[in-house]
Amino acid sequence: MRTVLPLLAALLLAACATRSPPSPVAVATTAAPASASVAERFLTPEIPGDELDSLATWPTEDGAVWLIASAKNVHQLLVFDADSGELLRRVGGRGGGPGEFLRPNGVFVHGDLLLVSERDNRRVQMLSLPGFEPLGSFGAGRLRSPYGVWGYESAPGALQVYVTDSFMLGEAFDVVPPLHELDRRVHRFGIRLDEDARPRVRPLGTFGDTSAEAALRIVESLAGDPAHDRLLVADEHLGHGTALREYTLDGRYTGGGVAPGVFAAEPEGLALWPCTPDSGYWIAADQLHPLTVFRVFDRTTLAPRGSFSGNVTAWTDGIALHASPTARFPAGALYAVHDDRAVAAFDLRDVVQALGLDPACLE
Questions:
Q1: In the chain, what are the domain boundaries?
Q2: Is Transferase among this UniProt entry's keywords (predicted)?
Q3: pLDDT at residue 181 above 70?
């Protein structure tokens, strides 16, 4: 979700934002070290006008990997080969029926289930991979402006799914509702995955802090870490200080996260990089021009561990981290949207070397 502001104005707003008193949990309160340079291994052909946003990966039965991107302006999903960047197919089209989309934004994959949040259909649609067969949808009548979507397997055959709802006052883009209405910034749903049956969905409530210091004002990206009972929600409100707010998986605000002052622009794509069952890193895109800065944080403490930029990649919205080996990327890859029109691929081996990260991430 890009706020159209000149870069200088965005930086001034971020620098002048009112900062909340530091929490003893919110350890990441200072800017990360100077950014390293990591060259992109490939950039997909540019597709001007499609307005690419969010990314997810899916390993195919024949050993390849698909990279799935939402294309908001044409109301489609694009499927790329994750090793070559070749565009393989387009899925869907404008509409409100099964398999159709209106401004698809967030995408999330669990097993063979694909979830797609649609801002203007005000729902999350469920599709089965590899055929993209519609399995139903949820959130209609509850979601007003859904953006990001993330989930995890809370029990065998069961998912908990989180959806950010960035509705604005009078549906204007930049008029934030009163604080007392911001307790509905994140919706939680339970999905039961039964074999040979359509998923069954039930709402589990909403949450969001409503204090002046830590309310979620403009939201899109979110991701979690069940091993640490952590959900990070990006707040993109430049005028108040962009941040990553930390919640427990049951929706309780901890007071922690990555505080205002670390991001120079909007925190966009967000991904967990688990290197061992307990250690690893978080990567978040700082949506800057001429080059996006990818900020790396410790998985456990959220302390800054460095940052990097590519040679080209800018104005990044979504990212996807594929930590499993592929034919081209034996240690996995980070994929990032470039300027709404292409996707860049970074080799995780290059990231580890450039930032001096834990070599266990390459095993």
A1: 7-362
A2: no
A3: yes
